[in-house]
Structures are given as structure tokens and as C-alpha cells.
Specification:
309 residues; mainly beta; 9-stranded mixed beta barrel; 8-stranded antiparallel β-barrel; globular
């Protein structure tokens, strides 16, 4: 059994010996409707078979749901070029002090890892697929329980990849009575920088079928962006598209990329997903539909192409 100790760095141990160290994750609250976290973190293994290896995780964590999926978007050394799924299920949670416990189990070929951690609110079962084991699968059904997801992964070779195209509009409204974008950090020099360098904002932006504010909402873009370019207004985007209606209801796409907002066309990477989009990869192409220079409100048109199973 492996345990996470309740330290700032979250150590994974077995009989007191450190096996892995997880740096404190970027864990922003990005949901105004329920407790939903953007999880951006790495599991750094420090001993044993996986010594020196890293699992990089990015995804949407609705902490009070029974089962949650996060994307394993990149790995190194033993897991080189792998991608996979981190399944989260709360094992125990102390509502007074916030401590939780998560168990760890490893099983080849999918490297199934369950993590019992103290000081965190989730149990994570990490199923990491080595790249050479990645086969093709259909996403006609969404299995949420860890056992069902493991079975889904083991049957990848029976199915084929498919391409899904999505089109929607992203509404960023910092001037609203209930703003969908809030600045949470800035440097002393940010306001004098022509590119707002150093600004960090958290977003919970609606995604709609049409560009009008009254158009039907199909999901939300939840995450954060930071002004990370000193030469032009360029944003580092780290977010999840959380779909809330239709056949993609409950599924997510994990997005990471550079957004030079004044360019006509921009590309962001789809690095993972959950539900229907489990193990997804693809491209999100952005084009500004409207921008109010006084209020900062913007509507952005997105064409998304996703390869999944």
C-alpha cells in the first residue's frame, strides 16, 4: 500500500520509503455552479520501477461527483510518449480538516495506479497507456467506474479512431454583473506593460451554439489564462471545455496552448479529454467574432477538430 503524506509536496510512500513526489498542483476553482477544480499537476516518481518518471495530468475535477476523469497528457522516461486516464473517486474525506486517503495499485500493461492520499480530496486511479499499447476504440458509451474504464482500455484493439468536428462560440464577459472572467494575480508592472505581462485570470465562460448572448449554452470553458508574452498580447490558455448538453453531456476536452489574441486565426492544442472524448487529441481553432475595447468583453468563434475513439 502506498500513502500520500499530508505535506506541501505530497509524498507517496510505502513502509515509510518515498516512492514518488508530487509538487503542489495548480488547482484553481474555475466553476461558479459547483465545486469544480482545474487540475494541472505532475506525479514525479522517486523510487522503484518508475524512478525518475513523470505523469502530467490536466483536467476538470468536480470533487463531489462519485467518479471523475482527468487526462494524462504527457509523460517521461518509463512512460515516454504515453497518454491515458486518471480516474478519481473519493475514498474518505474529513470535512473539518480537508484530509483524504487514496490507495495505490500497479498492474501492467496499463500501469493501473490507485493513489491514497492524505491532505487531498480525491482517490485517483491512474491508467497510463504506453504509446505502443495504444489501439483504437469507439466511444459509443461512457463508462465511469474504474473497473469499467480499465475494461474499456483493454479492448482498444477492437475499435477504430474517429474524427469529430465541433463549432461553438466562447463568451468572455469581464464587465458582467456576474463576470465570467476574474483577474486573480498580477505583477507590480502588469498595468504599465503594453501586453499586460504577468496577469493571471480564471474563467468560467459559456459556450453557445450561436454568437448571441441568448443562444443555447452547450458547455462552459473553465480554467485560466495568463499574459505570458512581452512583445504582443499573447495568452497561455489552460482550460477544459465542459459539455453540459446533448450527446456530449458530461464529457470534457482539455486544452493547452498559446493564444495571440489579435491574430486573425489561432490554434490551441487538444491534449486530452474524458467521457466520449477519453484519450482525445486535436486542434481548437479560434477566431475573434467581436471585441469591446471599452469593457474587454469578447465573443470568440471556435472550430474544434478532435480525434478520439
Amino acid at each position: 500500500m502506498w500513502l500520500w503524506s499530508p505535506t506541501p509536496a505530497m509524498l507517496m510512500t510505502r513502509r515509510g520509503k518515498i516512492l514518488a513526489k508530487r509538487p503542489p498542483p495548480s488547482q484553481g476553482k474555475t466553476n461558479q455552479h459547483e465545486l469544480g477544480l482545474l487540475m494541472c499537476m505532475t506525479y514525479v516518481f522517486k523510487d522503484g520501477k518508475y524512478n525518475g518518471s513523470i505523469l502530467s495530468v490536466l483536467g476538470h475535477n468536480t470533487v463531489f461527483h462519485n467518479h471523475r476523469e482527468l487526462s494524462i497528457v504527457w509523460v517521461s522516461v518509463f512512460f515516454h510518449l504515453a497518454r491515458g486516464v486518471a480516474m478519481a473517486k473519493t475514498y474518505s474525506f474529513n470535512t473539518t480538516i480537508g484530509d483524504a486517503v487514496v490507495e495505490n495499485i500497479l498492474s501492467p500493461p496499463f500501469h493501473i495506479i490507485t493513489i491514497r492520499e492524505m491532505g487531498k480530496q480525491t482517490q485517483a486511479l491512474l491508467l497510463c497507456l504506453m504509446f505502443i499499447h495504444v489501439a483504437l476504440v469507439s466511444s459509443s458509451g461512457i463508462a465511469e467506474e474504474p473497473e469499467a474504464v480499465e475494461s474499456w482500455l483493454k479492448n482498444l484493439h477492437h475499435h477504430k479512431e474517429k474524427v469529430t468536428k465541433l463549432h461553438f462560440y466562447f463568451h468572455d464577459t469581464p464587465s458582467a454583473k456576474n463576470p465570467t472572467t476574474i483577474i486573480v494575480a498580477k505583477a507590480n508592472t502588469t498595468l504599465t506593460s503594453p501586453t499586460l505581462f504577468g496577469m493571471v485570470s480564471v474563467i468560467d465562460d459559456p459556450l453557445t451554439i450561436g454568437p448571441e448572448p441568448t443562444s443555447k449554452i452547450v458547455g462552459r470553458a473553465q480554467g485560466l489564462f495568463s499574459a505570458a508574452d512581452q512583445h504582443e498580447l499573447g495568452l497561455l490558455m489552460c482550460m477544459t471545455y465542459v459539455f453540459t448538453g446533448g450527446k456530449y453531456n458530461g464529457s470534457t476536452l482539455s486544452v493547452l496552448g498559446h493564444n495571440p489574441v489579435f491574430h486573425n486565426h489561432r490554434e490551441l492544442s487538444i491534449v486530452g479529454g474524458s467521457g466520449v472524448f477519453r484519450l482525445a487529441r486535436g486542434v481548437a481553432m479560434a477566431k475573434t467574432y467581436s471585441f469591446n475595447t471599452t469593457t474587454g468583453d469578447a465573443v470568440v468563434e471556435y472550430d474544434v477538430v478532435v480525434v478520439h475513439y
